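INTERNAL AUDIT FORM
Audit reference: QA-55
Scope: verify that the stored structure record matches its stored sequence.
Auditor: D.O.
Record contents follow.
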Amino acid sequence: MPTHRCVLPSLNPSPPTSVRSRLSRLAKIEPGEGPAVVAAFFLYFCLLGGYFAVRPVRETVGTLLGSDRVSDLFIATWIVSILIVPAYGAVCARLQRRVFLPWVYGFVAMALVACGVALLRDESNVVVGQLFYVMISVINLFVVSVLWSFLLELFDAGQVKRLFGVIAAGGTAGALVGPVMTDVLVGRIGNSGILFVGAGLFSLAIVLQRVLLNLWARRTWAAAALPVEDHPMGGHPFAGFTLVLKSPYLLGIALFVTLLASVNTFLYFEQLELVRATFSSTAERTQVFSRIDYVVQSLTILSQVLLTGRIASRFGVGALLTVVPLVMVGGMLLLASFHTFSVLAVVFVIRRWGEYAFVRPGREMLFSRVDHETKYKAKNFIDVTVYRGADALGAQISNAIRAAGGSPALMGALFALAWAVNGAWLSRRREHGEGGPRA
């Protein structure tokens, strides 16, 4: 197969010295790595800033639609994710990364603008609300998965442990700023205006992705920096699915994501019910969701900057993958015993803080030993299709348990225990070098 040199326009401004020096104090950034770390930090900031700005609007739409309809939308989201993954696989097979990566974020920006225009015309339109709910539920996993796939190609396994904590902190900073903006601005510009703000942040992400692609082409930190050969990966659109089926390691990661998503879904539906019962107006609900978001992100950014990389380096990936599930066993049992909004808020904050600060970076590190096709195709299949499939299944189980008069939180505790065991197994497999297909 002929290869193509990755020749990109000059989009490599040096990051401000103050930014590099501050990040260097928080992580062991070696010579030449600074520009890539700063660009990745701000790219993740824009992605999560844009998503978390519009997320409270989605949650408010969910309270209006009700649990039964939202559980059906989880199935619709899963179906859309099944369709989007082979389409993305076909793009990966035929286009260079420098072409399709910026367009991913451009597509999201255009979709947010379209939804914003529709909501501006009729904010109470149920069909528009359902389409918006499904779209946001798909893109939040998809765009983050695409980013981490590229970062795993940009940095080697050693850099992953040192640098992913501080890069993840960029996303957390965006996830903090996004809901704060929504809390402040939604009363002035409405829900449609918030979608336009999100679109602007995704547009800025296009520029930052181009900067990183240019840095990737030159790899200034490598001992023997060679031009990167950026060529289409080949293969078929369903390669992500077949790669997962062939690898016990990847199947283990798929199970990890399934258990994680199921626990999250049980907790999510408890949230819908308790918020709707506690707060009557939609404005109050949007503000509650925004405030929960920025409390979580305030805790997370401190942990990611100060703890994540150090914990991974000293105790290994296993610590990142198992502590939060074990804590959630106790949290779900507590919620089952005291079914109030205050208990839910505490458990919800702990779960999301732990996931963003520890579980997510640890889960991304599991892919540091796999080849390029696996990083883009199999990883995206797990992150999107498997995750949303587990969401759909968890939603149906939650509604069935509630209809039978049971407690979904008790089932969540059992799933969390299995999640912790699976995380420990995966970390042992990774540490023994059994990371699936090798790069």
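Auditor finding: record pair retrieved intact. The chain has one domain: 22-221+236-431.
Action required: none
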